[in-house]
């Protein structure tokens, strides 16, 4: 999940030596991946990088201070930068042989960097990094090609975010989300639209890569991508999806094609129909609940995604908000592993980080934090706990090029909704384009 920063300023702890800037200037003498001293001349020094705003930097540095207090033989230099610049800067530091020891990753980047032999196989530091308490399905976010390269910082899951106030206005009961199908979803959305004012809809258009990934998983047991890094979704599945969504639009269950196209350009939760209190349902990530609640002013709820009655199962998965990875070139991989272990397993770190990087993947840490949560966080924690017992597959990290799926699907979806292509033609265009993007 992408988490947008609030500032573009790079943030360092006071002990940072700015080696990355020196490497960019060509100072090759400093090109060691972890820097700092050795066990013979004092504490070892490792570097830890992430993206985010000043508040994330503040609480993360507090957790690092707690780690150093518990591990006096290890000194940690921290680096934080805005999301838009983070991976460009990481690419440059990797090329210079000066990447941090502990690198925060997300999206398709873990697979990309592992395939470039940048990341450490975490089995090499299993004595220092205990992953036994973490949700098994969440761990799959960092596993591919038979090895583990990343540890989830926290997890969330895909869900239907629903507005009970809109349901009540329409005289429609909230669904039994243990038993509803996609046909039920469409029917409920149409019923809400028909019973409310003209500017309120039962659902926003649900088409996005994550929804299609879920839908495909339910039908074939594979989502958009195969574990080997290719495209797994079938044209027939995408055709069925477009038939469902065009039918919803034609029935008024979702907005018109022109409104859906306009909404697609609005990224902020408060700019969506759900965020304006003008939609009964929206497919979104569980960690977006608070933002949608704030925008709408209503006590929104999380529902399990429809489709559980299909033969392949729920299609649900736990997705890492971010992943902690370790550089293969680190001079102190054991120290780096101890830091990662502390961040995901120690209550002392959780006291500062809480759910900033997603709902903790460690159920024991989730339980530790439950007494100090906002109302929205309580709903999120409970939903993730519920879903962790229902997921029926491992998350498959998208291969290099998979990030193009967002724009590709949006363009195709608009073409189908406007009637310029049939659902079958749109499906062929999407699968062909996606295959080209990841080839």
UniProtKB/TrEMBL annotation:
Residues 1-33 form the signal peptide. Keywords: Signal. InterPro entries: Bact_solute-bd_prot1 (IPR050490), SBP (IPR006059). It comes from the Bacteria. This is ABC transporter substrate-binding protein YesO.
